[in-house]
């Protein structure tokens, strides 16, 4: 029996990391290990993964800002074939409140994991990036050739710096292949209802919507209804977390099969179309069968009117297309919110 390929998932207990582990565990030729220090996640995530897959995942509870601890992991887990790097702090308001923390954590951990990738001859590296690297967009839809703009938050700045670090590593290490996956707005939960996003405080639209519906928050405040969009509310590109997870598996397969001299790639991951805040609320009301308490508030400073992706390159090169509609995103998020409330 051939030896399994060992995949290290950093931030494996996080929202997208955990869903990606579930996708990876479906492949019997892979051995999955995780690294997560639980500062923004929980060890319970691995219990949920086991309920869904029937498989246990070994997690190393270490801080990737500690190079010695990271090296010990690589020495113990010999022959890691690929790294999927999710581990990072990701709150935009949190980064504005404490930019030093975000720079120290997100950039130091990236430096550590890239050094280990080089030192221990890892073949493939997949980076969890963000559409935030594009800044304020003038021309839609956004594709991979869209110029990268001025970072609108310290969080976005760390993703820009991380991508530049990745490009430099690719130049130094021609035998390793790297890819940056730029997500738009991941939402929803695993269709089992057993795992999903845990966000405290609630900041993003869908977690706020489900928190209001379950009674944790009083209301959804819509930031303006006078934007130059079809219904006056902001338009964003929402993508189901399970679609995002599948893209990581397809990106790994792409890197393994790619025979070109190129060793650094970038792909947008979005639905390819925009959904307004009002349309998202309507979709939730349809999925849940209940009216949502919301009101119109003022516009937020610096809020782009609309952002959505052109994801045709991912379709062409990775063979990836999102499967889930906004209705299915909302339905899965609502089932998860109710299940989570029942556990507490």
Which strand-content bin applies to the residues? Answer: 15-25%
Global shape = globular
Q: How would you spell out the order of helices and strands?
A: EHEHEHEHHEHEEHEEEHEEHEHH
Helicity, as a percent range? 40-55%
CATH homologous superfamily classification of the domain at 5-187 and 239-270: NAD(P)-binding Rossmann-like Domain
In short:
By secondary structure, this protein is of the alpha/beta class. Helices cover 41% and strands 17% of the residues. It has a domain of 215 residues: NAD(P)-binding Rossmann-like Domain (Rossmann fold, 3-Layer(aba) Sandwich).
Summary tags:
single chain, 344 residues, alpha/beta, Rossmann fold, seven-stranded parallel sheet, two-stranded parallel sheet, 11 helices, 13 strands
Commentary on this structure:
The chain is α/β, with parallel strands linked by helices. Helices cover 41% and strands 17% of the residues. The chain has eleven helices and 13 strands. The protein has a seven-stranded parallel beta sheet, sandwiched between helices. Strands 7-10 form a two-stranded parallel ribbon. The protein has a two-stranded parallel ribbon with strand order 8-13. Helix 2 links the parallel strand 2 and strand 3. The longest helix is centred in the N-terminal third of the chain and has 21 residues. The termini are far apart. The mean pLDDT is 95.
